[in-house]
């Protein structure tokens, strides 16, 4: 049996010593961001992605080992552990394989087979299996037992059948053989439940659906499971036509060497095989494989969500500029909040420039007064209800007053209402209405998306694929890891960060984060990183993990504003001393720093990778890895679906990337879909390799369906609406019905689960 460390090393493509070192650090309580950034010598440079995978597999394999030990102990206590069985258990490399081996020894409720054994029928069952030349009825007559209610030959043979059925269905090698066959050759069928056609219209593409199990993509799998869970669809593996044997029955017979040679017991044994497959194995195998499919589909969906979340969190910040946040509305008006460069609220109110009020002049006067009073640089407009009407109102005002030099930006407001009603928002703004809190969040989200989005449950941001159909525990764990990695990649300014942001720093938690804010409120700003050790419950271990990711601008030590860890300050001082230069003079001197040779400053503690990182950090201390701030310019006059025309080329922002394409906000309150086939002129296997959430793209309108609120877009601007695309291929969702092109498959993918149902959270612009 391979050790856990050896297996992980092979899976990661890493060296055994790298894995052993990383596991040692994790077991000591070190965090992934800290290990990947500050312990490169120890792990041989494993990055955060490798470490996250290592951490996940470590948990699974340790659970596997615990289960292996429990199974061995249980079988040994029963006195049934043979050397061969012990070896098979030791070699099992999956939880499913382990459970297959344990199945015959598992303590279970009293079964029909157990009752038959108690009645003494096991010798009869084994006799007929081993020698089909025996006559079942003649042999069964010797096993009648009134005490155990075996009063007829039929009773005896039925009991023997139950014994063999249980024995056949608990054979680990046979189970794996059957799984492998169905996994590679099985075909899944779905059909609508009678009477559910109208109720389940959104699943109509699955009403007569077949697809090879091995080819079902994750989004279609989750749509199938959703349809089944809602009682709309029946889903299962296809069965042979009447009168034909299922391949599963053939495999069972072959495995137990049962053949029909017209011997006395052959037909009875064939009947045992048939019942074993139909009653015991078919549903068992189907449950196992559908469980595997769901797990795989869930993992894909979670990875999609995680990648989109990472792109949103690392979106370009507009920076520290005084900003007005507008939370659009119709009847309730537009909520207005003004925040300063640090996100502190300066002013708030409501204006009514949209229908049914249409108080445009009064609203313009109020907004103009706020701009002049607070010297506003940016106006952030939430993209919900009345967003385009509000944007037009603001645009007209800024056109009339070009001297203001104010920029308007449409901001994705998904989750803003969740923040507004949160405990943290209530504590931060106890005297403000939730709608004003939403406007504040929209303004801050433009200034610094990361700092604001960490206050919201990641699942509420609306960039997932079937996010409500997957394991919420696994989803939360994955998204929390993404948030942690993003926050630590950017770094946190200790003196301005909120408690939710500080809580995401490696080594810290909610309690310590609140204590940092409380200490800051009572004692003023932190002057250096060492002061953090005075914060309640922030001990040496937490300081070691967190210090390098926490910045103090304008403090006592210029290194505190950088990503250099305090443990390496002496090394930086050594570089300065050996080159007879003041510490401050080193920082930002690109020519000097690039001339340094890292190997000249290595030691037992700091190798070339760490010294290289330190020199790079000194070159651009506290550098922000996020891209330059840019915004999409929505086309004037295009405010709703009815304004769109086929062939129109628009600029928009990608709001969500899925396994089958990308959704783009073009400013009409309903995102359009660029199917995977229309993302590029070359074949695209993974949309994330071409686009990412938050990216600004130009798209062409290919199809418009106002009734169902669907818009098909293409990033191939030479595509012509209504004409087949160059990426045509058969429809994998239903091989019997080939599509004209891959845009037709787009309709299938979207309809299966439906755009509305599939992305209700991500696409619904109304709060």
Textual characterization of the structure:
With 767 residues, the chain is of the alpha/beta class. Helix content is 46%, strand content 11%. The strands form four sheets. It has a five-stranded mixed sheet with strand order 6-5-4-7-8, sandwiched between helices. Strand 12 and strand 13 (672-675) form a beta hairpin. The longest helix has 48 residues, at 266-313. The protein is globular, with a radius of gyration of 33 Å. The two termini are 55 Å apart. The model is unreliable at 726-767 (pLDDT under 50).
The CATH topology name of the domain at 323-447 reads Nucleotidyltransferase, domain 5
Q: State which percent range the strand residues make up.
A: 5-15%
Q: Which regions are unreliable across 5 or more consecutive residues at pLDDT < 50?
A: 726-767
Largest sheet: 5 strands, mixed
Structural class: alpha/beta
At the first level of CATH, the class of the domain at 323-447 is Alpha Beta
N- to C-terminal distance: 55 Å
Keywords, please?
alpha/beta, Arc Repressor Mutant, subunit A, Nucleotidyltransferase, domain 5, OB fold (Dihydrolipoamide Acetyltransferase, E2P), 32 helices, disordered C terminus
Question: What's the structural blueprint in terms of helices and strands?
Answer:
Blueprint: H1 4-12, H2 16-27, H3 32-38, H4 40-43, H5 48-77, H6 83-91, H7 95-102, H8 112-118, H9 122-130, H10 136-140, H11 153-169, H12 172-185, E1 187-192, E2 208-212, H13 218-229, E3 233-237, H14 247-255, H15 266-313, E4 323-327, E5 334-339, E6 345-351, H16 360-374, E7 378-382, H17 387-400, E8 407-411, H18 416-420, H19 423-428, H20 434-447, H21 449-453, H22 472-490, E9 492-493, H23 499-502, H24 510-523, H25 540-546, E10 550-551, H26 569-578, H27 583-586, H28 590-595, H29 608-619, E11 649-658, E12 661-665, E13 672-675, E14 696-705, E15 710-714, H30 742-751, H31 755-758, H32 760-763
Parallel strand pairs: 4-7, 7-8, 9-10, 13-15
Antiparallel strand pairs: 1-2, 1-3, 4-5, 5-6, 11-12, 11-14, 12-13, 14-15
